[in-house]
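Exercise: predict the fold of this chain.
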Amino acid sequence: LKQVIPLIDTLHAGLTDVVADTSNHPAVWHAVQRGISALNKYYSLTDDSYIARFALFLHPTFKTDYMRHQEWPDSWIEQALSLIRQVWKADYAPRAQVPASTSTTTEPRSGGLYDFNRYCKEKRVTATSDAIDQLEAYLAQDSFHVDDPLAYW
Protein backbone atom coordinates (compact mmCIF):
# COMPACT_ATOMS: atom_id res chain seq x y z
CA LEU A 1 0.00 0.00 0.00
CA LYS A 2 2.87 2.37 0.74
CA GLN A 3 3.82 2.25 -2.95
CA VAL A 4 0.37 2.84 -4.46
CA ILE A 5 0.11 6.60 -4.06
CA PRO A 6 3.72 7.35 -5.10
CA LEU A 7 3.28 5.06 -8.11
CA ILE A 8 0.07 6.80 -9.16
CA ASP A 9 1.78 10.19 -8.74
CA THR A 10 4.66 9.01 -10.95
CA LEU A 11 2.26 7.75 -13.63
CA HIS A 12 0.28 10.99 -13.50
CA ALA A 13 3.43 13.11 -13.85
CA GLY A 14 4.60 11.02 -16.83
CA LEU A 15 1.24 11.28 -18.59
CA THR A 16 1.10 15.02 -17.91
CA ASP A 17 4.53 15.41 -19.53
CA VAL A 18 3.30 13.58 -22.66
CA VAL A 19 0.23 15.83 -22.87
CA ALA A 20 2.43 18.93 -22.58
CA ASP A 21 4.62 17.80 -25.49
CA THR A 22 3.01 19.50 -28.50
CA SER A 23 5.06 17.43 -30.96
CA ASN A 24 2.98 14.32 -30.25
CA HIS A 25 0.35 13.18 -32.72
CA PRO A 26 -3.21 14.24 -31.78
CA ALA A 27 -4.19 10.57 -31.37
CA VAL A 28 -1.45 10.15 -28.75
CA TRP A 29 -2.60 13.33 -26.99
CA HIS A 30 -6.22 12.08 -26.85
CA ALA A 31 -5.16 8.61 -25.65
CA VAL A 32 -3.03 10.11 -22.89
CA GLN A 33 -5.90 12.45 -21.88
CA ARG A 34 -8.16 9.39 -21.52
CA GLY A 35 -5.42 7.66 -19.53
CA ILE A 36 -5.21 10.63 -17.16
CA SER A 37 -9.01 10.61 -16.75
CA ALA A 38 -9.01 6.89 -15.91
CA LEU A 39 -6.08 7.30 -13.53
CA ASN A 40 -7.79 10.23 -11.76
CA LYS A 41 -11.01 8.22 -11.45
CA TYR A 42 -9.27 5.47 -9.52
CA TYR A 43 -6.91 7.78 -7.68
CA SER A 44 -9.88 9.70 -6.29
CA LEU A 45 -11.14 6.46 -4.74
CA THR A 46 -8.24 6.62 -2.28
CA ASP A 47 -10.06 9.58 -0.69
CA ASP A 48 -12.94 7.25 0.25
CA SER A 49 -10.72 5.24 2.59
CA TYR A 50 -8.46 6.64 5.24
CA ILE A 51 -6.17 3.60 4.90
CA ALA A 52 -4.18 5.07 1.99
CA ARG A 53 -3.70 8.38 3.81
CA PHE A 54 -2.68 6.65 7.01
CA ALA A 55 -0.19 4.47 5.12
CA LEU A 56 1.64 7.63 4.03
CA PHE A 57 1.46 9.36 7.41
CA LEU A 58 2.62 6.32 9.34
CA HIS A 59 5.47 5.45 6.98
CA PRO A 60 8.49 7.21 8.52
CA THR A 61 9.94 7.89 5.06
CA PHE A 62 6.87 9.77 3.82
CA LYS A 63 4.80 11.45 6.56
CA THR A 64 3.64 14.87 5.35
CA ASP A 65 6.98 15.52 3.61
CA TYR A 66 5.95 13.46 0.59
CA MET A 67 2.66 15.32 0.24
CA ARG A 68 4.34 18.71 0.48
CA HIS A 69 7.03 17.63 -2.01
CA GLN A 70 4.28 16.60 -4.44
CA GLU A 71 2.65 20.02 -3.83
CA TRP A 72 -0.62 18.61 -2.59
CA PRO A 73 -2.98 21.34 -1.35
CA ASP A 74 -2.43 22.28 2.30
CA SER A 75 -6.19 21.98 2.88
CA TRP A 76 -6.08 18.31 1.82
CA ILE A 77 -3.08 17.60 4.05
CA GLU A 78 -4.74 19.31 7.03
CA GLN A 79 -7.99 17.43 6.41
CA ALA A 80 -6.08 14.13 6.31
CA LEU A 81 -4.16 15.05 9.49
CA SER A 82 -7.44 15.91 11.21
CA LEU A 83 -8.88 12.54 10.21
CA ILE A 84 -5.88 10.56 11.46
CA ARG A 85 -5.98 12.50 14.75
CA GLN A 86 -9.70 11.72 15.18
CA VAL A 87 -9.21 8.01 14.53
CA TRP A 88 -6.14 7.97 16.81
CA LYS A 89 -7.97 9.60 19.72
CA ALA A 90 -11.10 7.48 19.27
CA ASP A 91 -9.48 4.09 18.78
CA TYR A 92 -5.79 4.02 19.64
CA ALA A 93 -4.70 6.74 22.07
CA PRO A 94 -3.98 5.53 25.61
CA ARG A 95 -6.87 6.16 27.97
CA ALA A 96 -6.48 7.98 31.28
CA GLN A 97 -6.43 5.47 34.08
CA VAL A 98 -8.71 5.68 37.07
CA PRO A 99 -6.63 6.53 40.12
CA ALA A 100 -6.33 3.90 42.80
CA SER A 101 -8.53 4.59 45.77
CA THR A 102 -6.75 6.17 48.67
CA SER A 103 -7.89 6.46 52.22
CA THR A 104 -8.83 9.95 53.33
CA THR A 105 -8.18 9.16 56.95
CA THR A 106 -4.79 10.06 58.21
CA GLU A 107 -2.85 7.61 60.25
CA PRO A 108 -1.08 9.01 63.25
CA ARG A 109 2.67 9.19 63.13
CA SER A 110 4.31 6.63 65.31
CA GLY A 111 7.02 8.00 67.53
CA GLY A 112 7.18 11.27 65.58
CA LEU A 113 8.64 9.59 62.46
CA TYR A 114 7.37 10.38 58.99
CA ASP A 115 4.83 7.84 57.63
CA PHE A 116 6.39 6.78 54.30
CA ASN A 117 3.48 4.46 53.46
CA ARG A 118 1.04 7.37 53.61
CA TYR A 119 3.39 9.47 51.50
CA CYS A 120 3.50 6.75 48.80
CA LYS A 121 -0.30 6.44 48.77
CA GLU A 122 -0.71 10.19 48.34
CA LYS A 123 1.80 10.34 45.49
CA ARG A 124 0.28 7.68 43.27
CA VAL A 125 0.71 8.75 39.66
CA THR A 126 -2.21 8.54 37.26
CA ALA A 127 -2.39 9.21 33.55
CA THR A 128 -3.52 12.71 32.72
CA SER A 129 -4.53 14.57 29.60
CA ASP A 130 -1.11 16.25 29.77
CA ALA A 131 0.61 12.97 28.86
CA ILE A 132 2.67 13.11 25.69
CA ASP A 133 0.54 12.23 22.68
CA GLN A 134 2.46 9.56 20.80
CA LEU A 135 0.95 10.45 17.42
CA GLU A 136 1.82 14.14 17.73
CA ALA A 137 5.34 13.27 18.88
CA TYR A 138 5.77 10.99 15.85
CA LEU A 139 4.41 13.56 13.38
CA ALA A 140 6.67 16.26 14.85
CA GLN A 141 9.79 14.22 14.10
CA ASP A 142 11.57 14.67 10.78
CA SER A 143 10.95 11.88 8.30
CA PHE A 144 13.68 9.28 7.91
CA HIS A 145 14.34 6.33 5.64
CA VAL A 146 12.92 2.97 6.70
CA ASP A 147 13.00 -0.13 4.49
CA ASP A 148 10.35 -2.03 6.45
CA PRO A 149 7.80 0.23 8.17
CA LEU A 150 6.04 -2.72 9.81
CA ALA A 151 9.29 -3.77 11.47
CA TYR A 152 9.78 -0.15 12.58
CA TRP A 153 6.37 -0.05 14.25
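Check your answer against the key: DSSP finds eight helices and no strands in the chain.
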